Amino acid sequence: MLLFALGGVTALVIMVSGLRMTALADRIADRTGLGEALIGGVLLGAATSFSGTIVSLTAALDGRASLAFSNGIGGIAAQTAFLAIADLLYRRANLEHAAAELANVFQCGLLLLLLSVPFAAYAAPEIAVLGIHPASLILVIVYGFGVVATSRLRQSPMWRPVHTAETRDDTADEEDESDKPARGLVAQFLILMLIMGCAGWLVSQLGAQLIDRLGLSASLAGALITAVITSLPELVTTLAAVRRGALQLAVGGIIGGNTFDTLFLTISDIGYRDGSIYHAIARTDLFWLAVAMLMTGVLMLGLLYREKQGPAGIGRESLLLLTIYLAAIAVQAILG
């Protein structure tokens, strides 16, 4: 009982911190002029993933390869499902239609590319230089190029979404003084990141205890317990961003957080000292990797198709995302 109480308190800390970070990220986007999609995809996405980073690193240092791997990949699936919940909250139109932004579509393609790397590493012969697989370095390089390309894409887009009455443009809030420096906002943002990092360490210890005491599989604990708890910032920030009308920030925060979460694998590989982490995981961990790729593909198609209004006030792609995620949970429960 104490473990679950601790988990509840930690989840609350993560949620409150994430809520405050959303407001700060929106104001930082306005003051710097970098835009909601870029700030959401890079700054907010990385910051809200910080607690999950600590979970994966701690698990890897403890030699728990499956927990480290499934925590990151399971978080990607959970966070993508959160967009469907946000779509239910935004009643004016389908969220993927209203939040039209080329940078978010590009980030989906980048995420699919990043998720294919661990699949290739798993299938390839086991190679490790100083205990680190080359795929881990490839993930960092691809992510870095992707961030730079996203920034350039926003500044000089070669494609533009069709503007409709339901499209919500990325404009600065009138009450925010965009001529003021963003240093104070960034400082507050970093403090909240540290708080979330400490919460992430507690979650990692919770996951390890659940595995040892209750006999849960590492894949189950990682994909459905630690991943969901550390993904709560994405849920809170996404819903808060939608309520603020910062739709590009909401979508960009999820997709950007997902792309950053692939770097959990690099960090985990560095922390795992018994060789390549890609060859120490279980086949059930690959199942969640496939689920994450499937859901990302559906989201990308939804962003391109831009259905204005789906049945019951939710887009068809959002319904499909929820269906895939719930079906994956059922399969994982069967697998144990």
Describe the structure.
- The protein is an all-alpha fold.
- The protein has one domain: A middle domain of Talin 1.
- The chain has helices at residues 2-32, 36-48, 50-61, 65-89, 95-98, 102-123, 134-155, 183-214, 218-230, 232-244, 247-261, 263-271, 283-305, 316-335.
- The radius of gyration is 19 Å and the shape is globular.
Salient structural properties:
mainly alpha; A middle domain of Talin 1; 76% helix; globular
Shape type:
globular
The Rg value, from CA coordinates, equals 19 Å
Instruction: Say what the CATH topology is.
Output: A middle domain of Talin 1
Number of discrete helical segments = 14
Series of H and E elements: HHHHHHHHHHHHHH
State the CATH architecture: Up-down Bundle
Q: Could you tell me the mean pLDDT? A: 79
**CATH 4th-level superfamily:** NCX, central ion-binding region
Return the domain count: 1
